[in-house]
## 1
Amino acid sequence: MAEWICRTLRDGGLEGEHAPALTINDTIGCPLGSFVFDHILSQLSSFIFCQKSQSNGIVLVALSRSPLYYEQLLKSKGFDVVTSSTWFKILDCYTDPLGWRSKLVESGSIRSLSSGSSLTVNICKNVKDLDELFSSILELGKELSGDGKGRFTVAIDSVSSLLRHTSVPSVAALLSNLRSHDQVSSLFWLLHLDMHETRVTAALEYMSSMKATIEPIVQSVDGPRGNSENLSLMEQNLRRGKFCVRVKRRNGRVRMMFEELSVEKSGIKFTPLSSEDEMTAQSLVPKVQFNLQLSEKERNDRANVVLPFEHQGNGKTIQIYDGRKSLNDDKAEMQHTSVQKVDSNRGEIIYFRDSDDEMPDSDEDPDDDLDI
Amino acid sequence: MVSVDKSPAPTAPPIQPLGQQTYVVVQPPAPPTGIPIQPGHQVQSSVLAGPWSTGLCDCFSDVSNCCITCWCPCITFGQIAEIVDRGSTSCGASGALYALIAYITGCACIYSCFYRSRMRRQYMLPEDPCPDCLVELGRGGDGDWVGTAMTMGLGAGEEKWGKGVPLTRRVGEAGDEEGGRWGAPATGKGSSSVTYMAATKPRTTSFSRNFSAVSSTAPHAPGLKHGPNGTLFLSSGIPDLDKILGGGFALGSLVMVMEDPEAPHHMLLLRNFMSQGLIHHQPLIYASSAKDPRGFLGTLPSPMVSKDDKSRVHETEQEKGLRIAWQYKKYFGEHNSESQRDGKSEYCSNFDLRKPLERHFFSGQRIDCVSLTESTDLATFQEHCSSFLSQTPRDNGNIAGGRIAIQSLCSPQCEFSNKEWEMLSFIRSLKSLVRSSNAVSVITFAPSLVSTAFSKRLQHLADTLVSVKAIPDEDKELAKLLTGYQDMVGLLSVHKVARINTQVPAILEATTFSMKLQKRRSLILECLNQAPVDGSSGASYASSGSCSGSSKTGALDF
């Protein structure tokens, strides 16, 4: 539930607690992660703009998309770019992550180094030094609030880009430092699962408190083969996807939520999932072989069992002699000493009563008289 | 449980001389028949200078001996000679000699007379009713004397001995887990003739146990407890876990907790472990990947005051009609826990997770907090641990028991998290360190953060292996499967229990337990009460529902 996530990020973390951290995972099968990222960013921006959230501003570390893009995003959402610099800061790691362009500027090959964005941006020239990155983030965050004590949200555009330059332990250290910092109220980042080994993604999931995965709704069977079916499926996956969220709650339980997301011209939309596909809880607890309930099939089978003394109901009234003269029987035609019961499908059972002293209901289903 | 050793044990050297005489062990003359000698029964009834089982003239009380003696005295004589000579002459040799003398001289009474007096001297038999030689002559020197001797209870059938303290005991009591050294040599043989010329020492039993110095006195430290096989336990801080593990964490063992990245339950285990150590004044090292590990000490729980520690509320469900008692097991254990609670309050306390530990427990204690992110490798930390543990004061027999708690060893912030072999060698050396310094180390790690091969290696290194797992929230299916789902916070599985000094494995009744916070305060572990489900795909044999032996995820199955 995207709304739920946005609210959690908006509310931030409690005092002394680690800030909630969201990781948005997407795969090549359904590469809608950046859309989700933008959506969450814009939602948070609106919360912050209306001053409904714990944090005063957002610090965005732009690694895979230019600051211009974000400027346009804000514009499209209706925010005024000029005033938004009070609550929206970008750390530009996109223009010159390794410092090559500044070297070129020094040598005079290119004129200037600018991203073309009017948003105040700080340019980071050395992405590899994560300590510096950390301190720049904190600096920007301090600028967001007047007294430098307010809390802010950090968004990292793509941790995958960060992982290209540095090692996993340093990225993990950066994230954990951000989370444990007092001034960071919440944190979220985007990660492309296919680009990394499972250990790396496991490490990043370890650092996060919420994990949102975008999966294709329909898995294509043959992979990248270019069937017409497959192509249409793949095209579908470019627009629609399943949004699964796993949240680590404070009491130690894991909450899972599912939604369907679709990307349209107007934006992204989240709708509740039509078919619930939940993890079977049976995998968690040990297997037990002791079943008391009957399954549907078993119930049907039980109903179909023909009991030998049961009246099947063949439409005729059956006169049952119960061994004593009742008033009705006096008027009945005859008094037999034997009783015949006819099963509709089976053979006949001819029963000779032993004595008249027997209880009349001992060998007959009393409901037979009712002839239901 | 006791298996009788059917083969003759090798002769045991005399261990303790009792009186002036030493034990002599005689090889069995015949192949063992597998009947163990249990002289203890007879010994207990007739102690010390008890009378012989038969008198001089009771020749016919032992019929078999009498027959042998009458028809073939040399055999009997040979056996007596062997006994009297204590094995220096063999039965066959002396028997043959007797036969030879009897044949040649016709009067073997002289030879037997000689042996008779020797025997009498040895066993201090009164010269009654008449002196030796006369008896010899009177008997005509034939087997009567020998028969007499036999009826006196000497000979191959040592069962009839009334004197001496034979200390044979059944070899093969391997199942006896109550260690300790036995005070007497254990020479169990099939049907051997073991002679003990023991001086009469007052003993009511045939063997005595020598306690080793450590175990003879109860450990003075309140935090330690004796366990089977001469091990010492210290408490994990969670009474239920102590019970499950058979007493607690064994000193010298390495406990590993496999974390679930989605749940912080391993912190609960660590907190209780550390608090228990502080309460018992045991030295503690805590290491984690946080920048300031000291902060974690502030979250340690305080023990519950006894008046708060009421007995667990047994929420007996209202019996609405007939219910099938597949949950019957949960009603059993609670009766026992009541009685044990008082005695155990010193060893293991119930912790109130909502109350922080008081300050005075931190002062004057040896507590070290180390941040794992400080250095790029584990060598410094290893040095730190070894120096810390070597400083543990070790009085004579008074072992304090140190505790090492390492949280999230493989967490990705640490520089060495990529270097798996380094971590492995660190844990190996830590294990030997802990074993030699009688400490307990609890390490938590998340198996998903290391490769599967290394995860397996780490699991194998552990002496006690436990894993915690998160449970989904608001899961209706799970709520149907498990009763008490609302109170559960997670699942705990016990994969391995440390067995030190023994080869007998611990087979637990159940390996998966639910972790619950009782009244949001104390951590309790309960057996899973599962609703019966169609487990046709399951592998384990049917248990009536409450606990099952198999753990849930196949990867962690041992």
Note: Chain B touches chain A through 61 residues (CB under 8 Å).
## 2
Amino acid sequence: MEAILADSVRNSLQQLMYRNAIFMCERLCAEFPSEKNLQLLASCYLQNNQAHCAYHILKGTHIAECRYLFALACFQMDLLNEAEAALSPNESNVEVPNGAAGHFLLGLVYRYTDRKQSAINHFNQALSLDPLLWAAYEELCILGAAEEATLVFDDGASLLIQKQYLQRGLPSQSSQETNEDHEITSNRSSVSDDVSPRKLKHTYGNNLREMSGNSYATTSNQPLHGGPTSLPFYSTPSPMATQAQLSGVRPPPVCRNALPNGPNMRTHGADVSQRVTMNSAVAGPRRKFVDEGKLRKVSERLFSDSGQRRSMRLAGESVNANSSTSVASGNGISHSSKYLGGSKLNSVVSRSSTLRKSHPSSSEIADEGNHHGVYGESRLNVTSSTSSPCGDNRSLEPEGATSSHGAVILSSSKVADGASDILGLLRLLGEGFRLSRLCRCQDALSIYMKLPQKHYNTGWVLSQVGKAYFEMVDYLEADRAFSRARIASPYSLDGMDIYSTVLYHLKEDMKLSYLAQELISTDRLASQSWCAMGNCYSLQKDHETALKNFQRSVQLNSRFAYAHTLCGHEYVALEDFENGIKSYQSALRIDSRHYNAWYGLGMIYLRQEKFEFSEHHFRMAFQINPLSSVIMSYLGTALHALRRNDEALEMMERAVLADKKNPLPLYQKANILVSIDDLDGALAVLEELKEYAPCESSIYALMGNIYKRRNMYDNAMLHFGLALDLKPSATDVALIKAAIEKLHVPDEIDEGDSMD
Amino acid sequence: MAESSEGEEEGKLTGGNPQLVVDDDLRDMAKKAAWSVSSCKPGNGVSSLRDDNLDTYWQSDGAQPHLVNIQFQKKVKLQLVVLYVDFKLDESYTPSKISIRAGDGFHNLKEIKTVELVKPTGWVYISLSGTDPRETFVNTFMLQIAVLSNHLNGRDTHLRQIKVYGPRPNPIPHQPFHFTSTEFITYSILR
């Protein structure tokens, strides 16, 4: 009875029928209470987005996979201490469960509890265990501690990938795939941690996992890799796999029967779907390399990972679009999506379903797109070879035709090729992402250009390109890149918050409100949609409503740093500096490399005339983004306010060099020169500036002031007149007219001087 | 009607706008001030002047002149005062002669503007600017709006809403002038 129930549960999970799965599993646990069954039940709950249920039932369990799931549930419920305790209890000999996935989760916990170094260590470990764990690399980039992509995704990684893939390829493959999903329920034990976590997982995931409990033939499970079942976390691997494989997951022999290989399989599938959902948002290049059609499957698998990664990435980055993608499921909850978001699954599911028959939705899932595709291929091949049953599981089968896989056996050379292709892709994407996070945008752009067209023209890459242009203050190019991203993946919400800011800067209110409406209708529960809406209101100067929208965005995902920063900007516009400071500090707590928040704090202190603080904050922003001329010019302004004029002038020079199109540093330089009485110098600078921005009233007003000080009244009058013609603000009109009146006084005294 | 000679400037204002329309470069200064009144009937106190609800009103309860005092923590530039009054609803409670005074505190208020309202129904705009461009704004710590007399010689007065506007500050701190061109504005903030 136990076996039948377990099987039915896994089957339901694979088909993403959570309520059925939960019900059956509860009966299973009641009849045969054991940790393994609890693990299965927890994975059902997690996939159905009920982290709190999983939390309660897994409290106090000991086996590795259970601890992993428990930690996942804790993370989703924001109980980071417990998550940490579960993953790495005090007895240091205990292995982190689920290998790479476990390290990744632990890394996230450390990141959100402010222990940056430990986080970095764990992410690095995760990557060394599974080079295809893109999400870990992403997190490292966000923390600013990533190594060059060529070092990470190198030949050693290639070998590891191949090994894992081949190991997993065997029968258990099918299970693997599914296993990869977080839920890896039982297999964990069988899995060996160090095998490349994800990859293998995918393929084998199911298998391995299954191994532990299943009665299936499970050929493969065990051997596979070490990649511990931990996949679960990231495993979204093959969302598709779930579909396809759900049935048999693991053991090849049974695979076909749609017997779930093991609980894992199911979970994987589920996970995968989830991930996939995530990915969808991402629109990353999904590559599904089609390797005789099998790729699809593989890619799916990969994606599941990517999904994961994506989630991770998304999670990591404040941009949490996850919910958006999951729209399908409707979960809307951003974090959950990351992990298992039931929604994701749903979305995944939907995706997969559309995909196709057996093909795993991976193709779709491909968002993560990058390497996955490649991976997928290899997987597919492998899977097919390993076992028929498993093959199915993999769902990756791209064309469905292979569903039965059974026969495909990837030759090792193909695997090697596949692995190196994937790594090649990952290298480019990784390096591009790393550079863009280090604010070396021009370099990042040139790397992205090296990508093959089919990858470049995907939502994820185009949106990264858009972000790079945004940081270089080239809003027109950014607009272009983002609109192409929208065309490539109109359902994706990743990066759309930045796009809305670009439109805000360009003052395109029509486009901005259209974008906001579309995003809200795509996913009402995504943080990015409300950010876009808020930007819309802010452009119309309705700061109170804008603030409400940004606060809503924060509520939907409190780990989204940009939403906090935008709230801060609105508070400042409403002159509520205290709350503004609080918002910026919250943003920094989430992501201390979010230079916009450092800049915001610097601006507040500048307004409040706390110049020392202001200089410190601008300097922090400058250290993170040393190429931004805007930050440099404000740092210079703060230095000038502190009367450190030499340093201020030097900073302005650097700002001018950094971006020739920015007129502000020159203007500030003129200001500083006036204050140190170098009137000629100032006039020279302003003359130059006049050529660049002939319609700027403040240039003429300042020149008027200078001429007045020089007693060159004709010139002063001329310039004041020009300044007034350019329609300055009311305050300035008053100032200028007052200055003009004062000009007349000496004239009146010196009779005979004709001014007009 | 004959112009009275009292006050620096006296003008007659008739009618009133049903809508409140203010220039973009003005902003509401009310939140920065402490508001008080010389007297009030319970239930119709000073908060009715600031609640954005035209159905609630402040009703005075004492001798004329009735005073609304607006005190700021630091000197601010003010440009416009807008009142919502309605003769059709308030009849003899509608203010007729209004004097606006400014100064550092109660001890040195000086009248800067006088207006006479004639059957007003809606928002009445009272600009505080002088003729000289140097006098566009009134730079002051305190503003006092005094109701000197009402229509039909009523004793007490109703005021439904008061708004006070000043210029918008420079969004970019520490600059001598505001920026007008797109190139400057685009590069002047990081969002």
Note: Confidence is low (pLDDT under 50) at residues 1-9 of chain B.
